[in-house]
Amino acid sequence: MITHALENAHRRYAEKRPLSRERHARARNFLPSGTTRSVLDFDPFPFTVETAADCHLTDVDGHTYVDYLGDYSVGLAGHSPEAVRQAVTAVLDKGWSLGTVAGEEAEVARMLCERYPSMDLVRFTPSGTEANLVAINLALKFTGRSKILVFDGGYHGGFLSFSRGRPSLNVPFDAVICDYNDLDAVREAFDQWPEQIGCVLVEPMLGSGGRIQAAPDFLQGLRTLCDENGSVLAFDEVQTSRMSYGGGQALLGVRPDLTTLGKYIGGGFGFGAVGGAEPLMLQIARGGEHSYDHSGTFNNNRFSMAASAAMLSTVLTPSCLTELFERGEDLRKRADAVLHEHGFQATGWGSLIGIHPSDTPVVRASDLAGIDRRPVELLFHEMLERGVYIGKSGFVTLSLPQTAETDDHFLTALESSVRVAARAGA
Description:
Helices cover 39% and strands 17% of the residues. The protein contains 13 helices and 18 strands. The strands form five sheets. A seven-stranded mixed sheet has the order 4-14-13-12-9-5-8, sandwiched between helices. A four-stranded mixed sheet has the order 1-2-3-17. The longest helix is centred in the last third of the chain and has 23 residues, at 318-340.
């Protein structure tokens, strides 16, 4: 029944989007699968957006959607926020790609260090992926060790995906993979490799692995184990930094040695940063006893620096991030009540939500292994039919331009969509 329902959904979708279908067919001649981001590739083909404003998207076939994906957290401020527009316009007027210091970069670094007490110093990169690559290398160089400890379902960028059983184009780090929220497994790993694990890299909420909250004592337990074993604790806050003015670490009261950032801070432009304790960061200071080069043509991209300065100084205020977190907590609870009636559930933290076709508690990525995800794919298409765009795997990401009215619209669409998905999957 679910197969038949999906076939009908795909057919209905394709019939309404002839221009997107035509553009996708042409793109397949030059792009593998017709896209350049695997996460945006879905059946029968992805739609092409013509315009975007605030929390709305309009595709080339004239369909408008309320955006509840937010480009997987990049679009926290919505599409084309005015403060970022003004900052980027100023760059257009003055010039870019100068091959010298960008005027805004020291100011952006100052604001980040003030927000995150764990950051004594900060370094910029073009993306969160590169920020995590730098963080791992800093940790391994500092400790003189060879292994990193990561978690099943952990996604730290395009070359740092650690899901068991799912192949990825990874950088070949010597990785030990443990289950999220399982301190005993981490302890056993340190017992097995007591002087080889140089870095524990963890998301304060498992993101792509299911948007799974950390258990109350999990992250503090990692802090203790790293201290006991001389390992560096790195928080990937590329997504969770949106949870408060000081990121997820401020809400949880756990101080990492290194923190990585990215996505929304760049206001829609490529941005990444790694910051942390001075002894770790000074390894890339020129002229030190143990000094390593860290270059990158777009580390201080003028558009990214100007946009980030505008986001940090004007948009990402303490009050707006607190309100966003609280609205997300409320929306997830309301969505979970709707979903549970039909055998689904909502996981997540703050303004990041995951939808799963199971009502069994989810505390680690393996709890989702083997679950038939086709009902979520059908839910995704039913939400599109009702004018709401979420992630194809059930990811929901809140943004600042959304309102109580758009939240109500989302919930109304969700309630009718999950009924269809549940019936088809029964």
